[in-house]
Amino acid sequence: MTKVLAARLDSAGDVLVTGPAIRAIASHPEVSEVALLCGPQGRAAAELLPEPTELFTWASPWTIVPAPPVDDEHIGALRDYVRHARFDEAVIFTSFHQSPLPLALVLRLAGIKRISGASTDFAGSLLDVRLKPGEDFPEDQPEVERALGIAAAAGYELPAGDDGRMHIVDPTGAFFGTPAHLRPAARSGSSAAASGTMSASSRLDAPAAPRDAAGPLSAPAAAPDAAGPLNAPTAPRDAAGPLSAPAGDRASRVLDPDEPYVVVHPGAAVPARMWPPERSAEAVELLSAHGHRVVVTGGPNETALTSYVAGASGIDLGGATDLRGTAEVLSRAGVVICGNTGPAHLSAAVGTPVVSLFSPVVPAVRWAPYGVPVELLGDQDAPCRNSRARDCPVPGHPCLASVIAEDVLAAVERLLAAASAPAASAAAGAAPTPGPSPAASAMTESVPTASAPTPGFVPAASSPTDAHPASSPPFSSPDIAPTDSARTESAQTDTAPTDTAPTEGTAR
Questions:
Q1: Could you tell me which Pfam families the record lists for this protein (predicted)?
Q2: For residue 55, what are the β-bridge partners?
Q3: Is 504 left (phi over 0), alpha (psi -120 to 50) or beta?
Q4: DSSP for residue 447
Q5: Beta strands at 129-131 and 315-318: parallel, antiparallel or unpaired
Q6: Cβ distance 435 to 449 under 8 Å?
Q7: β-pairing, 458-459 with 374-377?
Q8: What one-character DSSP code corresponds to residue 183?
Q9: Other CB atoms within 10 Å distance of the CB of residue 365
């Protein structure tokens, strides 16, 4: 039997889009264990994936921003874990602008004999299976399909009947968005988690131990034993659970299935991908005025933003949920409205349609939400296109500031109408028409234009080119203020609405 290390070192959304590829590895009959090496920003998402038998969290100096220093202790924490674990092979998953070679070097020195990855650079003896982007597979493809291609090159393909969509699980083991998850019993399980009564023995319950001055594993770290190669001490999940107190009551009220709602997630870890806050606030007011119940979500560092955006019309859940709790909220929404950030991929993973306010700093064909109906808004031909800028390089942020609340309202209502059509057909006795597999789809053009839709992707009407004048929000935050300076992004980063991210060198 084979023990495989899958590696995805960046953020929450990146881990989620790699989920189907990890599922392909886990489904192989010769694979006995699949461990996932992830970064601190991706840990919360990794805990939602059903396939990994083990997680190891490590902050990669060549992936995350800000980058940790490279020193013997830091590199040694990963090397020691890999040596103790005795993996037979590793599959390194990267985005189009990342290299697998630094990690491949560390893994090779730690004793892994077979390593697979995609690299534009000559890999020498660092990769045993090397895919050449642009030659062995197209660069302009969804990230989910890119990851599946890397897994397939390593010898791991999805089993027959697997649709290739992203999936995550709740604490009961049920997939989000399925009847098993949405039935009352599953909802009561979520309530138990919210009240702190969820079993501490659950594979998903134990957060990683924090790093302290003693080194990469909190002292006293246990010696390797049957429980795991580096049996790092873990703390039980606190009483906050997936729906963090004291806002759990608000979140529970939102989850009432008799009260439909849409979600606005205004934040983004990368400012260049964020719709201006005043636009989000206008959208909440307009949606509410048209009879939509609007929930505003955000992380604990975004409470000023979510309060401003929610105003008097929306329900503010800023800071009220961790990533799993956010997934609960998104899974019950009719539509989610957000930028190119972690919750967009989380929405896709729970099966909820998305109005994607997409800044073209990275290509939509690669990073738009996958496998669900999507309305893509934003000027995809703006000067910032493909710049990978973290801060908007164009004064006024025209690629997204040009999108107005009326555009979002129209997109929301198109998605809701499309979702209600199969239900109406079923009620009338007509069999719904099955949709195509998302794995067979690819966007051929970044929109909004009048281009033909592709499976799982709904093109939006063109947005106005002139931005509405709007007042600035009544607070100041460097995380949301537009800037005229551009910085090149070294890694795909996403907002993960969690209180803290585990630090490097921690194992589950």
A1: Glyco_transf_9
A2: 36
A3: beta
A4: S
A5: unpaired
A6: no
A7: parallel
A8: S
A9: 20
Predicted TM-score (pTM) of this structure:
0.75
Of all helices (H) and strands (E), which one includes residue 304?
helix 303-310
pLDDT at 437 over 80: no
Q: Beta-strand (E) ranges in 307-466? A: 315-318, 336-339, 354-357, 374-377, 458-459
User: Could you tell me if 165 and 438 are in contact, meaning their C-beta atoms sit under 8 angstroms apart?
Assistant: yes
The residue with tokens 């090496």 is: 37
pLDDT at 420: 86
Give, in order, the Cα–Cα distances in Å from 295 to each of 94, 139, 178, 330: 33, 36, 22, 10
In whole angstroms, what is the distance from residue 502 CA to residue 211 CA? 8
Q: Where are the beta strands (DSSP E) in 349-485?
A: 354-357, 374-377, 458-459
User: Tokens 């084979």 — which residue?
Assistant: 2
Q: What is the pLDDT of residues 469-496, one digit of tens each?
A: 334 454 433 333 332 333 333 333 343 3
C-alpha distance across the termini of the chain, in Å: 22
User: What pLDDT, in 10s, does the model give residues 111-128?
Assistant: 999 999 999 999 999 999
Q: Is the pLDDT of residue 181 over 70?
A: yes
Six token digits for residue 43: 């840990």
Q: Which domains does the chain have, with CATH numbers?
A: 2-162+206-236 (3.40.50.2000), 248-424+448-459 (3.40.50.2000)
> Residues of the chain with pLDDT > 90: what percent?
55
Q: pLDDT tens-digit profile of 157-175? A: 999 999 999 999 988 888 8
DSSP tally for the chain: helices H, then strands E: 15, 14
Look up residue 329 and give its two tokens. 């909220």
For residue 452, give both structure tokens. Answer: 């033909």
Indicate the pairing of strand 54-57 with strand 506-507: antiparallel
Hey, what long-range contacts does 100-107 have (CB within 8 A, 24 or more apart)?
100/127, 101/126, 101/127, 102/60, 102/62, 103/7, 103/9, 103/60, 103/62, 106/75, 106/78, 106/79, 106/82, 107/5, 107/7, 107/82
